[in-house]
Model the fold of this input.
Amino acid sequence: MTHHNTAFHQLLKPLSRHEFEGLAKEHHSGQKLRSASRWDQFIGMAMSQLSGRQSLRDIHSNLESQQDKLYHLGAKPIARTTLARLNEKQPAKLYETLFYKLLKRCQQQPSNHKFRFKNPLYSLDASAIDLSLKLFPWAAHRDDTANVKLSVALNHGNMMPEFVALSDGNENDMIEGRKFNFPKGSIVAFDKGYVDYQWFADLTNKGVSFVTRLRSGSVYEVIEQQDTNSDKGILSDQTICFTSAHAQKRNAPKVRLIRFLDFESGRLYRFLTNNFKLAASTIAAIYKDRWQVELFFKAIKQNLKIKAFVGLSRNAVLTQIWIAMITYLLVSFARHSAKEGWTVQRILRVLQVNLFERKSLKQLLQPELFRHKKSEPQMRFTL
Done:
């Protein structure tokens, strides 16, 4: 019988333990850790992400019950008080750095989106992670709400969050969005919350294309009109320049304004882009595909632990969210073992109930290949 490590052990293979320990030394605060290590902390918190543990006591009990299997991971059960202290005191920056180290390894996988053009395609958006104002007063957003904001630029080629930032809930989406350094030649789709004339100019100067929607009340002048095909819903394709003093002060570039009628919903959209090469129908399709980043937020909120937190401090919350993002990357990396068409969300659900099973990931994620065929009886008796 073929021996397999646990599914959890196989899932962690892309992580270098040596690299992790180096980062742990770099991002350490206070006295030397004695009763538990940062690796023990990571294993406990990652396990809770994948298995849906609800509390520190729940995490500790689950780790103790799997103690013999943790040995092969180089980890041990961690007391709930120790885990709480590490989450609160030890810098969450370790896991932010680890996320980007792992991302580089995951980016080596094949990447190909559904469009015919070869440019990298990203969707940019931010989502609020709600918190209790009573329990998390440091995250106060308004008088009656508290949250932190997760900003993500999702790569459509591999469906991985290639740019991630965490910020206070009252911070404008643009602040983190402008920090993302998109590669030259890429295309970025975002909603009207990111409309900023200076950023439009910066992206254009860097050779990055954007696709967004026109804000109502924008002042502009039509420079050129292109022929359109109304059969595809393209009502007009114009080259415009923004003429307001606000736009001119910020060097707003010339852009295309595409009026598109969605036949299914009957809604009229006005798209803005600085890409003058792609067809107007392709621009409309790119913005429609921006929905993928919304599906990403839905998947992590439904399947990972970023809605209920096991610590109350800012550092504890950031630690849990960054470990959730690392877990998402690990599951994304494991998709090569899954059946074609399986989403990260579906893989997470399978792993949740098979985390400590000694089966290969391929056996778990492509079960039809391993089903035993019914053998023919060697002898038949005819009556």
